[in-house]
Amino acid sequence: MRWFVELTAQVGEDEDLFDINLVTYPARVPLLLLGLDDTLLDRAGAFRAWACEFLARIGAPEYDLEWLLSVDADGIGSAWDVAEALRERYGLRYSAIDLVEEIRGAVMERMRLDPLTACALAIAEDSGWVPVCVTNGESRQQEAKLRKTGLDRYLADWVISEEAGVRKPNPRIFAIAAERARMRLGGAWLIGDSPEADIGGADAAGVNSVWLHRGRRWSEPRYAPTRTADGVIAAIAEVMASRW
Ligand SMILES: [Mg+2]
């Protein structure tokens, strides 16, 4: 919110800039910011499918799946950490780099764009929303996910933390997304699954948010999402309903 107030103050001081902004950034078209992993695409499902297969292949017990999922932590832990943890626990002969490549390749291969998610994005776009993906991660990896799944065709643009030089929850990344779409951040909505990166970031940027709970309870006392939903399609419907 602080960021938005500061920008508004700056714009207010310079009348020429204010006029340019009125022309360039239409205030009435709403910006829809969306996370990528476990919001637009089911990364958790893709990782779990690979993990089950891998544990079976090396003869590890099935109950080690929970351990492996916790090491991955929804992709927050890097693939290198996962590879090292696997090598150490099972005394594997695979090199770390081979494991990292296998994990990344397998997750990528298993990611699919749900056609109903594509439909929901198309409907939102038809009714005037501008969908922009904002994701933390490596540019090469995240961009490949967007393009290989065909998600790129349903988005106006995307911002990846590595190339932007700033990560969620820093509100600057949402300002960059708004700039790319040539829109104002005021009135935007954000849909995401991470309490800290997505909802904390939206709170800091002063935008409304929908949290995808994925079976979890909200436990952060410092801020809260505007709405909660059990999937991205329901979340898009909530955002669209907010305009009427
Ligand atoms: Mg996410």
UniProtKB/TrEMBL annotation:
Pfam families: Hydrolase. InterPro entries: HAD-like_sf, HAD-SF_hydro_IA, HAD_sf, Pyrimidine_5'-ntase_YjjG. This is Hydrolase of the HAD superfamily. It comes from Dactylosporangium salmoneum.
